């Protein structure tokens, strides 16, 4: 599915959210992208803006694409559910269209790990589902499993993980609906 996802990725209009992150991000920051896919259109933008990027994705095919398409990033195959607290020290964590593919009962724990990678005032750009759902659906012709809460519970999770929400918005691009957060570690 990696190539089909890449071919359709630009339908999800996340560029404006990356631009919001860039407004807050100190110069020459190190950014961790969890669920980086092929590295576009997020990591390439961050690198062009003078930042460093570590991208992690569970798909070896996505990582092959990222290494080919986005020069200068450090791209690794890995499962974000297996991350260890304080494993990284970065200025920002980005995780777009990824978290809801992990069991929702783990979302708070995973976001707390993300917080552990950040200093005070570190930034989080995150996509979550906009309504309660758990089950299988089809994405680019491939069966995909998702697990998500609704908007109120998402907000509660973000705040419980130690973040101040700077922006919360429902994005309808690409024929999908997602809740997008930009948050700052307290």
Describe the SSE topology.
Layout: H1 2-8, H2 15-24, E1 30-34, H3 43-48, E2 52-57, H4 60-69, E3 74-77, E4 92-95, H5 107-116, E5 123-129, E6 133-139, E7 142-148, H6 151-160, E8 163-171, E9 178-185
Parallel strand pairs: 1-2, 1-4, 2-3, 4-5
Antiparallel strand pairs: 5-9, 6-7, 8-9
Could you give the count of β-strands?
Answer: 9
Give the SSE string. HHEHEHEEHEEEHEE
CATH superfamily of the largest domain: Vaccinia Virus protein VP39
CATH-derived architecture of the largest domain: 3-Layer(aba) Sandwich
How many H/I helical runs? 6
Strand order within the widest sheet? 3-2-1-4-5-9-8
Could you please describe the fold and organization of this structure?
- The chain has 186 residues and is an alpha/beta fold.
- It has two domains: 28-78, NAD(P)-binding Rossmann-like Domain (Rossmann fold, 3-Layer(aba) Sandwich); 90-186, 3-Layer(aba) Sandwich (Rossmann fold).
- The chain is 28% helix and 31% strand.
- The chain contains six helices and nine strands, in the order ααβαβαββαβββαββ.
- It has helices spanning 2-8, 15-24, 43-48, 60-69, 107-116, 151-160; strands at residues 30-34, 52-57, 74-77, 92-95, 123-129, 133-139, 142-148, 163-171, 178-185.
- Strands 3-2-1-4-5-9-8 form a seven-stranded mixed beta sheet, sandwiched between helices.
- It starts with a helix and ends with a strand.
């Amino acid at each position: 599915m990696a190539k089909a996802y890449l071919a359709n990725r630009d339908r999800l209009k996340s560029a404006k959210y990356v631009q919001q992150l860039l407004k807050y991000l100190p110069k020459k920051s190190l950014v961790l992208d969890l669920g980086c896919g092929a590295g576009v259109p997020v990591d390439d933008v961050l690198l062009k803006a003078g930042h460093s990027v570590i991208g992690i994705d569970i798909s070896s095919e996505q990582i092959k694409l990222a290494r080919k398409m986005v020069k200068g990033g450090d791209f690794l195959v890995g499962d974000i559910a297996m991350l260890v607290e304080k494993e990284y020290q970065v200025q920002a964590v980005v995780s777009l269209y990824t978290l809801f593919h992990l069991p929702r009962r783990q979302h708070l724990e995973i976001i707390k790990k993300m917080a552990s990678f950040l200093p005070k005032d570190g930034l989080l750009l995150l996509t979550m589902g906009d309504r309660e759902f758990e089950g299988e659906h089809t994405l680019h012709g491939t069966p995909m499993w998702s697990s998500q809460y609704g908007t109120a519970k998402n907000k509660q999770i973000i705040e419980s993980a130690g973040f101040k929400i700077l922006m919360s918005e429902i994005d309808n691009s690409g024929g999908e609906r997602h809740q997008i957060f930009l948050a700052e570690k307290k």
